[in-house]
Design a protein that fits this description.
mainly alpha; 2 strands
Length: 173
């Protein structure tokens, strides 16, 4: 199924909002994920009728299950899992696997960029030697040796899901 330009424009705006929320607050609102599932299913319904709904919900389930395992292992948040389900509903069964690959690649690039940023900052400011990887406490912060607190660095995987989905849609139609 190919999205019509209006659906694609709406999805792009939705994903931009998701990216902003995830970068700013490291949270993805449930309403945005639910909206993605509903609109993805609706787009498939108008393109293929009842078969489109089945295709959309199957893509939704595949993406959900793929992201649910890292969630159970503590590797990502529940908002990421729900957003991935919404993107699976847009991608459907025929595009969900390439979409998951694109999402994983973009997520890896974001993680590498964050590591590179930490290494550059450490190199520039040797007198504040902080560990590159730390564990966060219940408030999402961690204390370094000097007692100062800083926000724990996490990967905004909502951005990776958004960009990977758009890459897949623009690449595979």
């Amino acid at each position: 199924m190919s999205l019509n330009p209006l659906n694609l424009a709406f999805l792009t705006v939705l994903l931009a909002i998701v990216g902003y929320y995830d970068c700013r607050w490291r949270k993805i609102p449930n309403l945005l994920s639910l909206l993605a599932v509903i609109l993805g299913t609706q787009a498939h319904f108008f393109a293929s009728g009842g078969k489109g709904i089945v295709n959309s919900l199957a893509g939704c389930s595949i993406a959900f299950l793929f992201f649910f395992i890292p969630y159970l292992l503590g590797g990502m948040g529940a908002g990421d899992v729900k957003l991935a389900a919404g993107m699976g509903s847009y991608l459907g069964t025929e595009k969900v696997l390439p979409g998951l690959l694109a999402i994983a690649l973009v997520g890896g690039l974001i993680a590498l960029a964050q590591i590179a940023t930490v290494l550059v900052r450490r190199q520039q400011n040797r007198k504040h030697h902080e560990p590159m990887f730390t564990y966060k406490n219940s408030k999402g912060t961690t204390a370094n040796e000097t007692g100062r607190s800083r926000v724990f660095q996490t990967v905004p995987y909502g951005v990776a899901i958004s960009v990977g989905t758009l890459i897949t849609l623009f690449t595979f139609g």
